[in-house]
Amino acid sequence: MSSRLNPYISFAGNAREAMEFYKNVLGGNLRLNTYADIGGETSPSDADKIMHGMLETDRGFTLMGADTPPGMEHKPGNNFSISLSGEDAGELRGYWEKLSADGTVNVPLEKQMWGDTFGMCVDRFGISWMVNINESQG
User: Fold this and answer.
1) In what order do the strands lie in the sheet with 8-11?
2) How far, in Å, are 44, 51, 52 from residue 39 at the CA level?
3) pLDDT, tens only, 44-53
4) pTM exceeds 0.70
5) Domain 8-67: what homologous superfamily?
6) Cys bridge to 57: 51, 61, 124, 127, which one at CB 3.0-4.6 A?
7) CATH number of 82-133
8) pLDDT digits (tens, 9 = 90+) for 98-112
């Protein structure tokens, strides 16, 4: 297997909901492991939290996420975005519609000065997304 670069997102107790939402948006196979699944000492309040989640899609996307481990502080940041790009406008617009629903649109998905259709939004979980539809150079 070749090396991969995957976004890994830490959540404040809602990783299951967020990862299921992303599965609904992107499709694919979602595997979730709870703290109880791995065994060891886990408080009852943490047993059902997600220790590791991985979404792998038919399109080759991989997104990982988990609830912040017990005893660690959740520190959300604004220093990353997840980017979806390609030439399939219908598919990418579909992702955009679902990701931006109940979220905040920072840059509307529309033609930009460099020729591509591009938009930026923050989904309902506070995660920043960029969608770029490459325009054909005919």
Assistant:
1) 8-11, 62-67, 50-56, 29-34
2) 12, 11, 13
3) 888 899 999 9
4) yes
5) 2,3-Dihydroxybiphenyl 1,2-Dioxygenase, domain 1 (3.10.180.10)
6) 61
7) 3.30.720.110
8) 999 999 999 999 999
